[in-house]
Specification:
The mean pLDDT is 96. The chain folds into 2 domains: 91 residues, Beta Barrel (Elongation Factor Tu (Ef-tu), domain 3); 106 residues, Nucleotide-binding domain of ferredoxin-NADP reductase (FNR) module (Rossmann fold), CATH 3.40.50.80. The chain is globular and about 50 Å long. A hairpin with a 2-residue loop joins strand 5 and strand 6. It is α/β, with parallel strands linked by helices. The longest helix is centred in the middle third of the chain and has 11 residues. It contains 4 helices and 16 strands. A 7-stranded antiparallel sheet has the order 4-3-7-1-2-6-5. A 7-stranded mixed sheet has the order 11-10-9-8-12-13-16, with helices on both faces. It has a two-stranded antiparallel sheet with strand order 14-15. The structure holds flavin-adenine dinucleotide (FAD) and FE2/S2 (inorganic) cluster. The site of FE2/S2 (inorganic) cluster has 12 residues, from loops.
């Protein structure tokens, strides 16, 4: 893990409110496990703290993230021009573990897709993606995903299943139960909680990527803890022991 200077080579809107940022780094970021993230220094003098973003793609010296504009930092980032300097600390955290056998079911809600994109690329056709988005207008977010079966739920019913991605998954789950499934999920907390409620009686392996606000990203400040069922040391740092956890280890 290194702190690597780089320059923005692309920062364009995929759909309104969502940008894909590609940076040319001064040296390769090295091996990235899907689910790992970087702490990015946004090129704006008023944004002091770095922000965490999942690695969306990393090839040689090129690093890509997909981000949603939600506040001051991401808004400033969306206005950064080509050639603007950035610093990238990473790869950080504990990522997904890919099993040798069985079907891999990936569940992504909204910008949670950014957290599983590299996983999907590594899994290839072994994976099926259950995608939850607001409406058909958000479908271009996955336009660069090839060779993977995608089943989509939209909240407004404008494409695919009308409802939440967990309701959609619930309808399909029966056909995967006997196929030794491992579930991978990334999305809003409500999605993770309702997934847990549904899976509780089945107890299939499920790895989830969770988010907490982060300051250092390095395990030093303990500002990002999540409660787990570990009786001796229940509070785990999302930036160090996570962001990917076994769902059944978390106290949600
Ligand atoms: C490990 C990890 C990976 C992430 N990957 C991505 C990614 O690939 N793409 C992406 O768009 N975002 C990702 N995020 C979330 C991203 O870091 C925040 O959206 C960003 O830091 C917000 O900065 P801001 O200054 O724009 O918002 P702020 O002005 O700081 O906050 C605006 C709003 O966003 C909420 N918020 C801020 N940070 C977080 C957070 N970490 N989790 C949940 N809500 C938050 C605040 O509560 C507030 O409501 C990730 C977060 C973590 C912890
Ligand atoms: S952000 Fe500092 S310990 Fe996790």
């Amino acid at each position: 893990m290194d702190d690597i200077p780089g320059k923005i080579i692309d920062n364009s809107a995929t759909i309104p409110g969502y940008h894909r940022l590609t940076v040319r780094l001064e040296k390769p970021i090295g091996k990235v496990v899907p689910g790992q993230f970087v702490m990015l220094k946004i090129p704006d003098r008023e944004i002091f703290l770095r922000r965490p973003f999942s690695v969306y793609d990393a090839r040689d010296t090129k690093l890509t993230i997909l981000y949603r504009i939600v506040g001051k930092g991401t808004d400033a980032l969306s206005r950064a021009q080509k050639q603007a300097p950035v610093m990238v600390l990473g790869p950080l955290g504990h990522g997904f573990t890919i099993p040798d056998l069985g079907v891999c079911i990936v569940i992504a809600g909204g910008i949670g897709y950014a957290g599983v994109r590299l996983l999907l690329r590594n899994l290839g056709e072994k994976a099926i993606l259950f995608l939850g988005i607001g409406g058909v207008n958000e479908l271009p977010l996955i336009s660069d995903l090839k060779g993977i079966e995608v089943v989509t739920a939209t909240l407004d019913g404008s494409y695919g299943y009308h409802g939440t991605v967990v309701s959609l998954f619930r309808e399909h789950f029966g056909s995967y139960r006997t196929k030794d499934p491992t579930i991978f999920a990334c999305g809003p907390k409500g999605m993770i909680i309702s997934l847990k409620e549904f899976l509780e009686p089945h107890k299939v392996p499920c790895q989830v990527s969770i988010e907490e606000r982060m300051a250092c990203g390095l395990g030093l400040c303990f500002g990002c803890v999540a409660e787990t069922k570990d009786e001796i040391n229940p509070y785990k740092r999302v930036c160090k022991e996570g962001p990917v956890f076994e769902l059944w280890d978390l106290s949600l």
